Amino acid sequence: MTYLQAISDGLREELRADERVFLMGEDIAVLGGAFKVTDGLAAEFGRERVIDTPLAESAIVGTAIGAAVVGMRPVCEMQFADFISCGFDQLVNVAGKMHYRQRLAVPLTIRLPSGGGFSGGPFHSQNPEAWFMHAPGLKVVAPATASDAKGLLIAAIHDPNPVLFFEHKHLYRRIKEDVAPGRFETPFAARVAREGRDLTVVAYGAMVWSALEATADLDGASIEVLDLRSLVPLDERAILHSVRKCSKLVIVDEANATCAAGAQVAALVAEHAFEHLDGPVVRVATPDVPIAFSPPLERALLPQVEQIKEACRELLEY
Amino acid sequence: MSSSNTERALPEVLVSMPQMGVSVAEGTVAVWHKRAGDWVQKDEIICEISTDKIDTDVPSPATGRVAELLVAEDETVPVGTPLARIATDAAPGEAHPDEQDAATAGAAAADAGAAGQATPDAGAGQGGARRVYSPVVQRIAAEHGIDLTTVAGTGRGGRVRKQDVLAVLATRDAAEPHDREPPAPPVRADAEPAAPGRDRTEPLSRMRRAIAEHMTRSLRTAAHCTTIVEADFSRVEQERKRLRSSPLPIVARAVIDALERHPALNATLEGELLTRHRNINLGIAVSLGERGLIVPVIHRAQELSVEGLAQRIRDLARQAREDGLTPDDVRGGTFTITSPGSYGAIISTPIINQPQVAILDLEAIVKRPVVVADSDGNDAIAVRPIAHLCLSWDHRALDGALAAQFLETVRGRLEREA
Amino acid sequence: MLHRDLAAHLVRGVEPERIFAQYMGRASGITGGRDGNVHFGDRRLGCVGMVSMLPDMMPVAAGMAMAFKLRGERRCALTWLGDGATSRGDFHEAMNWAALQRLPVIFVLENNQYAYSTPLRLQFAVDPVERAAAYGAVGQTVDGNDVEAVFAATLRARERALDGAGPTLIEAVTMRMHGHAAHDDMRYVPAEQLEHWRARDPIMLQQARLQAQGVDVEATRNAVAEQLDAALARALQQPLPDPASATEGVFCEGEAEPLGDGQAPYSGYAARGTDRV
Predict the structure, then answer these.
(1) What is the ipTM metric for this complex?
(2) Using the beta-carbon criterion (under 8 Å), do A257 and B3 form an inter-chain contact?
């Protein structure tokens, strides 16, 4: 099952099991979604539960909040994660503050196809996870594997809070694996993608695969790759555990470097694992530049396997 | 710290007078830390400059050999003026006499000046910097009383790395193994000192004390009864091969189904208040070896499939062993499963996890001859994997018939529907 | 229902004492000191607290209405906004969405002539109530200072909503008689404009109407004042929130409890059977 099919499967399981669940988004019913994630769902569950909406992201998020507070379990799709900026106010000011202000839960899931690597250009390639990490009251998850895509999505739908589910477009059809049937939840916690002793690479989403490739054979060094899976809550224990073991840390971010998730990881380690460090914390991230369209420009911006390899090698030698 | 984009290697890089603020147009070279021919690391301080407002260090923009100093000390030049050229296609260890020292000095190390040459964070002034150690190296050295100036460094430019101090420690431990044993736990004043071959008396650990208190209180509180059934695990064995898991999640799912049918067992009894719980919060006993036992809880377990349960059990067991459970992970249980059967025991009478009203014990799955009926209804002897399900229950909250019915439901699920 | 209209909360049954405590940032206020003034909603009474960006509540109300419609409930959502809110995108998105899906929702536009200091003529070229038709919704203007007229208009909008006829935009024309907030001396409002509206005070109008029917308004007024004095005295006794609790409750940790049903025990209007607002 591909990463994309795993997401579809998760949606189907929840639609079958819980009548409160319904889907909303642009072009998701008749067309089956721009990426075909919701293909066939309107036929199975009807247009009342798989709703084609107007092109109005603020209203998609806003109406989902309204439905959620009266007991529904809406799952919205942003056609591209980039478009969530149009719904920013509803998420940050309405959804994120609701429970703190009046103890009213907003069980809402928003799916955000994110990430670059296929010449999507400045408006179809972003990784805006960190915008929401900075806003209280929102959970943020980003699966790297097909199993996690399904398990995290189901956990997001079950969660009584607004959860932003960042699904990486570049993994949709590239990642294929056995995924358990039925309903299961993946916890909002990190996963050790590969165990190691000499150096930790922290990554999430597509960068987990880049990190694994870059460190598969690094002059015999034993490299641990930690897949964060969840950015809010951030699995601080797992990060610190790994860094305390390996004492060297490379953080890979596909997002623009400044204040990205990786910056938070670096700050955490500086605060709580200082006495375990045997070298500077090294970050590999996209510079603070919009993601360019033309392939050589895009490659120059997004972290490449070679770059990660080089960063690890330098730190190992340090 | 390296940032996102590694620079493309150019044969030569210029060091320029930096812009230190919008109102500053020029600066004076105060001190050169390098001379022509010196090896310099990227970000290493190459010179200090001063202006009418501030004094500041200038880091080298690249790693390489200082080819030429273009501005003399005390000379004032406009912002942007090239100060030095760095040849980046050179290699360390050529030409310059100091460098030869540096390459070898790293290992022997007493000469702080030479080793510091390649240490980017080196703080002090001209003529060489002090040797700087990373936090982890300093911590290990302090904990084990290692004099770092005697440690040979294998890192860049002779830097002492974590593995270097660990190597020193390993050599030392090998040489004098008895000194490095962990300190013995505190003993009673009247006890014999611990020695090989003698008895050893020590106080219970905190975890064992908690277990002791909890277990004796439970035995004091509840009217314990234990009911046992035998179940044929043939289907479970097939299913667990498919899932590549232990039988535990399959049994857990069967227990959840049975609890949904017999909600009286998904309950807690506190004093004379009996609460039947809507959610099934399933406790799973996890052994921590000699340290003890802990029971993390899968909240709302009824919402999880077998696969989901398998994953949660794996995660919780891992967290338990890594001391990563939070207080929430062990609170709120409404029923507990324990499975010491992996060590071959076939029957036991578990103690109820208070304030719950029952606990199920899964014992070892053992192949046994059993009487089965063939499709024509004739009895025959067959070899089947069999396990005992031992349910301890609180006679204050329920009666034996219900306990037996519950076990029968679990068994039915395992034998026919697993 | 989502509102900034204080009277609506009272009609819903929020005790005045808790509203005073809310304004004074007390632990017993509706938000327990997490938010101030009229930024609150008692979820048990079916109220979602508004946020400062008022038009944000329009899509939220539309979403509540969507859920009611999906579940086949005879229930509608209602929210308030000001004239200022009509300029933002969410006004457009919600009007379009609600009309498109014929949702049981009512938008009450309190046109009080000014958005802070900005008068209507600097806000829009087309009156918002006239825009309603362009979306396929019903737009209706009502004298915002006539309590009974507003009540009747809302009741009609509610009937339409429950009959599946879609959303209504009610424009209640009124005047903001004091500053945008306590610090605002409102010098930008011409004195004659204030005088004009002062003569049309909604409380005076209703009082005259009730007195004509023989109601002893003075007695009611005294009884209310007494209740309020007592509520204020009690609110003043309430403790301030515990600073240690400041970081609690950002996330819901247990089960999500949905919004309670809306009843309006003090509206004097008995809802029919299972109807809920």
Answers:
(1) 0.92
(2) yes
